[in-house]
Specification:
- With 164 residues, this protein is mainly alpha-helical.
- The chain has a domain at 11-119: Winged helix-like DNA-binding domain superfamily/Winged helix DNA-binding domain (Arc Repressor Mutant, subunit A, Orthogonal Bundle).
- 62% of the residues lie in helices and 7% in strands.
- The chain contains 6 helices and 3 strands; from the N terminus they run ααβααββαα.
- The protein has helices spanning 9-34, 41-53, 58-64, 69-81, 103-124, 129-149; strands at 56-57, 85-89, 97-101.
- Strand 2 and strand 3 (97-101) form a beta hairpin.
- The protein is globular.
């Protein structure tokens, strides 16, 4: 008789969601400091999307953040006014507006990434070394598989400009 394996995905998803939930207050608190209290998931998604994929049109950024074009444009306006994004006319199509991270925006995302790593490091401090080695090995293998499969939750067809 062949033993059927139980699908581990639901349990893995629950664990990952739980781990993220343990660090989210700290990370989003830091995001509120960096973005002068104006933190939304859409803004965080937009900043990380631009960090990973480079300059985008306002429409592409709105799509990545799951916003309507109008809401995406308003979000961009707010991030431009905070100094973390710049907006310019496309060099090939004057009707198109391109959006990019400013140096301040890149610094903000870098700080958020660092804060996320620090929060996980604090959460995992004191865990047995063997357990952390197993976790690191499993996550490294999973990341390699995701890359090989071209798996990303970003806008279809977007090519990363940097590894997150």
């Amino acid at each position: 008789m062949v033993e059927r394996l139980t699908d581990p995905r639901p349990a893995a998803e629950e664990v990952l969601e739980g781990l993220f939930g343990r660090i989210a207050p700290r990370v989003f608190g830091r995001a509120a400091d960096l973005l002068e209290g104006e933190v939304t998931f859409s803004r965080i998604i937009a900043l990380f999307h631009l960090y990973r994929y480079g300059p985008q049109t306002v429409a592409a950024l709105a799509e990545a953040a799951k916003l309507s074009p109008t809401a995406g444009s308003r979000m961009v306006d707010g991030l431009v006014s905070l100094g973390v994004l710049s907006r310019s006319e496309s060099s090939t199509d004057r009707r198109r507006k391109d959006v990019a991270l400013t140096a301040e925006g890149r610094t903000a995302v870098t700080r958020l990434r660092h804060e996320t790593g620090e929060a996980f490091a604090e959460l995992l401090s004191g865990a047995p070394v063997e357990l952390l080695a197993d976790l690191s090995s499993a996550l490294t293998a999973l990341d390699a598989w995701l890359v090989a499969q071209g798996r990303d939750l970003a806008v279809p067809g977007a090519e990363p400009s940097s590894k997150i």
